[in-house]
Every structure is written in structure tokens, then in C-alpha cells.
Design goal:
single chain, about 180 residues, alpha/beta, 6-stranded mixed β-sheet, 6 strands
Length: about 180
């Protein structure tokens, strides 16, 4: 690893630690009480686009606002360290969300970085096995945030199969319907 790469990695680690140190008050809510959802998505397949459209329609019928963000499409939208620029994130992060869903499943920094920059009551992430790739010992690799970023999520959905947005989003809604208020 070159000196430049080490400096870049140290800078990113420092930024992520500072963001993770900011106070975050967890609040789990029943689906009926959720008024806004933020969704961090990765490159979409045609099936994912249909799923997102159906999800948006469902939430609109319920009176729930959905906002989405994807990784920057060009280098002009990132800084010299590879992090998204504030101008790119601001249209998404200026809102407070009752539920923030990170649907990025690879080991990139985008999902955790946006999660930590966004105000929300409940942060949800995904971790599962990716059957298409294996480690040298023959075991499947995990398709989830890097170990050091898993702690930023309040709820981590563990999957046994390859990630599918069409399963992930309904599963989250199922969990939220099961929440009961105790007083």
C-alpha cells in the first residue's frame, strides 16, 4: 500500500469515527407510525427498479414519504478521498427519517457513510452470504458492510441467500408490523 493510500485510509477512518461518535437516539416504531423513510440503494437491476416503484407506491398509499439516494455517478461528485461531496448528499441528508434503510450490500463505504451523515430514528442494514463468490477456503463471502461499520446499524438483517431488494424491503416491513407498544 502506497503512502497516499495509507493517508487516504487514515483520513476516511478519522471521518467515520467522528461521524459514529455523534449522538444517535434509537427509536423503533410500528410501521403505522412511520412517516418518512430514507433508502440508500446501489446499482439497480430492472427488477430492483420495479421493486422500488412498487415500494414507493405502497408507501405513498400509506402516507409515508420515501427518499432514495444512490452512489455518485461521476468523480465530480466525490472529494479527493473518494467520499461523496456535501452538495451531493445534502438533498438526501437534510431530512430526518423515522427509518433509514441501507440496501448497499457490498463492502463500499457509501452506505455506511450516508447512514452516519443522515439523521434517523432507526438504521437498518443487511448482511448475508453471497453464493456467487467464495473465499480461498471454499466458504462463501458475506455481502454486508465491513465489520468495522456493522455497529452503526440499529437493526442488521441477516440473510442466508444472495441479496434481493424484492425480499429485503418486505422483510423490514414485516418486522415493523410486529412491533408492539409496551407501557
Amino acid at each position: 500500500m502506497s503512502l497516499v493510500d495509507k493517508i487516504r485510509e487514515q483520513h476516511i477512518d478519522t471521518v467515520m469515527q467522528e461521524l459514529a461518535a455523534k449522538p444517535h437516539r434509537k427509536r423503533i416504531m410500528h410501521l403505522n407510525d412511520i412517516g418518512s423513510i430514507g433508502l440508500i440503494v446501489h446499482c439497480q437491476t430492472d427488477r430492483d427498479t420495479i421493486t422500488l416503484s412498487q415500494f414507493h407506491t405502497l408507501l405513498k398509499k400509506r402516507g409515508t414519504t420515501l427518499r432514495t439516494i444512490q452512489p455518485p455517478a461521476s468523480e465530480e461528485q466525490t472529494d479527493k478521498y473518494g467520499l461523496p461531496k456535501a452538495e451531493y448528499l445534502q438533498p438526501f441528508t437534510k431530512y430526518h427519517y423515522d427509518l433509514l434503510i441501507d440496501a448497499t450490500t457490498d463492502d463500499t463505504l457509501f452506505g455506511p457513510y450516508v447512514t452516519l451523515n443522515t439523521s434517523s430514528n432507526l438504521r437498518v442494514g443487511y448482511c448475508g452470504k453471497d453464493p456467487n463468490t467464495t473465499l480461498p477456503n471454499g466458504l462463501p463471502t458475506t455481502a454486508c458492510p465491513s465489520r468495522r461499520y456493522r455497529d452503526i446499524y440499529d437493526l442488521l438483517i441477516l440473510g442466508k441467500e444472495q441479496f434481493e431488494l424484492s425480499r429485503y424491503l418486505p422483510n423490514i416491513l414485516e418486522y415493523l408490523v410486529q412491533i408492539r407498544k409496551t407501557e
